[in-house]
Amino acid sequence: MINFKLFLKKINKLLISINELIESFFNNIHNIIKRKKKDKLNLRNIDRRINIFLLTIVLSIISYFLIPTFYDKDRIKSHLEEKIYDKYNLNIKFEDELGYGLFPKPHFFSKKTKILYNKKDILFSDNSKIYISIKNYFSSDLKVKEVFFKNNEFNIDLDSFNFFKMLFNSNNKKHEIYFKDSKMFFKDKSNEVVFISKIEKLNFIKENETSDQLVKLIFKIFNLPFSVNIKNDQINDKIISKLNSKKIRLRVENEFYNDSNDIEGLLKGIIVNKEKSFNYKINENFLIFNSLDKKIKGQIDFKPFYLSTNFIFNQLNLKEIFSDESVFTDLIKSEILFNENLNANLNIYSKKIQGIDYLKNFNLKIFLEEGFIKVKDSSVSWNNAVLVNLNNIQLLSEDNELKFVGEIYFDFKDLTKFYSYYQVSRNFRKNIKRIKLDFVYNLTQEKMNFDNLKIDNKSNTKIDNYINDFIFQNQGYFNKVTFRNFVKKFFNVYDG
After folding, report:
1. Roughly what angle, to the nearest 10 degrees, separates helices 461-474 and 480-493?
2. Separation CA 428–CA 262 (nearest Å)
3. Residue-wise pLDDT tens digits, 211-221
4. Residue 62's CB: how many other CB atoms inside 10 A?
5. Whole-prediction pTM value?
6. How far apart (Å, rounded) are the C-alpha atoms in residues 265 and 235?
7. Measuring CA to CA, which residue among 305, 287, 284 is closest to residue 297?
8. In 24-119, where do the E strands start and end?
9. Measured between alpha carbons, how far apart are the two ends of the chain, in Å?
10. Residues 457-496 pLDDT 10s
11. Nearest to 283 by CA among 297, 268, 269, 303
């Protein structure tokens, strides 16, 4: 039989034990929470000390960087001008008070700055920044790290153009000079603007005293974009340059030795995917160049500017020259050839014309004069029977269309050969010497209009009516068949 009292006694002990265990558990939790609160309070005190320490460091750094704001403005201005001249050979003048900025790195800035060269103001800048070294702030003996000019206006002539050459050659120290968003006004002796060039960037960089001097240039002239990279190879004492223009598919690479006043070198260029190599010589007065294959030669005079060039071809592709994707068309659309200050004489000779078997000995003389493109004293021989003279012809660019407007003279040397080719009936073969006419040829639409036709200096009403009817019916379009029929019927109509 179970002892009931003993059982209750054991149960009571067990309950007391469980109760103590539970009480101990909650006591431990309470101690842990209490300890946590104490630790958190200690951490807060530590965090507060760290924050105070970090704040002190930050304020000290900012205070150090702000020391230049307490410099004497006039003194620091003259100090920086001297430092820039010593390091970059730049005669710079700050024309307003200097400001100071921390970001992206410590610098002084000016909203009105100019650069002088040979006692002339050649640059005005609306935004110049002088980045300085973070050392020696307490001594105010600041070191210039790089200079930056933005929104600039260059005023350059032939004499002051040497400013860029000076920047490129005269400095052997580590330096960085940046010009961004500039306009260059190139002027003649009478201070008239010859052309304006937009310069997106012009950088002069020398990473250390032993490295090569580098120039990186991106610019537009007459709406044509170019990029130029130049390196002064100090070890080999030569200058290497690369010029690119994707718009006219031009790439030029050049090397020359910089050991005399006259510069001579070999220039390699890719024009419309065709490589050409030129020997050239340049000095302060002129540039002479000759292609290695003897087909291109010319001279550019600088004072005053004038280009004279001769081109010699075995065969000329007129369709390729006047196509929408040609370099010539790109130049016309860019309006570079219509610049009033561009003067040139281009002489082109070709033995043959591609696709036109009977045209030979093509002589074309192009003159660029005061914004006009003219053709004078030019000729081409047709089948050794007719000499076609081109005179007083002008190239016009109107409403995105190219037009030739001028006079053509047909001087007949062998009438028998001419009449036979066009199958003119013997009854209509007249003994004529010259035909003259005025014409307008639309290159874009490939349409021809002509009038004021004279045969041996005489007008003919029947011929005038025939021409007007023909142009009206054919809308100015010509091909080999229509032209042959036109010539044949022309002499049938002409009654002498």
Report:
1. 160
2. 65
3. 778 899 999 88
4. 10
5. 0.60
6. 18
7. 287
8. 91-94, 99-101, 107-110, 113-117
9. 163
10. 999 888 888 888 888 777 655 677 888 888 888 988 887 6
11. 303
